[in-house]
Amino acid sequence: MVSLTHLWMPILLAAVLVFIVSSLVHMVLKYHNSDYRPLPNEAAARTALPGAEVEPGMYVIPHCPDMKDMGSEAMQAKYVEGPVAMLLVRPRGPMAMGKFLGQWFALTVLVAFATAYLGSRTLAAGTPYLQVHRVTGTITFLAYATGSCVNAIWMGYPWRAAVKDAFDALLFGFVTGGAFGWLWPHA
């Protein structure tokens, strides 16, 4: 078993590498740009939502307050008539990219720390590079890929976007596995 104190460098390196790869994906490769589409009549929606006094939060249309009512004829009619949507409303104001990037970096550190923890409990000091890469890369891939799949299953997140997110997670797994494999303590 390896002490977590011996893994602080790969934790930080992995977090920084994931942050850089993510930035390159979104600012250079830009294959996620097609994940978001405009509403056909955005102006009407922007006018209707403030009039409905929508506070920041997550909403579903049509709303069914109790699952036992889901099968009622009235509820089923609403689903057939449409629209069927999940709506995420953020607070008003300019996009706070600094805050979002700070939170994203904190998450990359958390995932790298969890990867280090699991790796340190399953891999001994002196484990060969490829084995460390395989284990830590897989842990990282699972950490980043599964959320989009859950959202695709339950929230209507497009599967095409979830597959792109899984590809990102694969890239994150490769760089994290590389960082841990390179800096893994020797026997």
Keyword list:
single chain, 187 residues, mainly alpha, two-stranded antiparallel ribbon, 2 strands, 64% helix, elongated
Q: How many E strands?
A: 2
Query: How much helicity do the residues have?
Result: 55-70%
Q: What percentage of amino acids are in beta strands? A: 5-15%
Instruction: Give the helix/strand class.
Output: mainly alpha
What is the approximate shape?
elongated
The main β sheet shows up as:
2 strands, antiparallel
Overall description:
The chain is mainly α. The protein is built from six helices and two strands. It has helices at 8-29, 42-51, 73-81, 97-122, 129-155, 159-183; strands at 57-61, 85-89. Strands 1-2 form a two-stranded antiparallel sheet. Helix 5 (129-155) packs antiparallel against helix 6. The longest helix has 27 residues, at 129-155. The chain is elongated.
Topology:
Elements (H helix, E strand, L loop, with lengths): L7 H22 L12 H10 L5 E5 L11 H9 L3 E5 L7 H26 L6 H27 L3 H25 L4
Antiparallel strand pairs: 1-2
Helix pairs in contact: 1-4, 1-6, 4-5, 5-6
Short synopsis of the structure:
The chain has 187 residues and is mainly alpha-helical. It has six helices and two strands; from the N terminus they run ααβαβααα. A two-stranded antiparallel ribbon has the order 1-2.
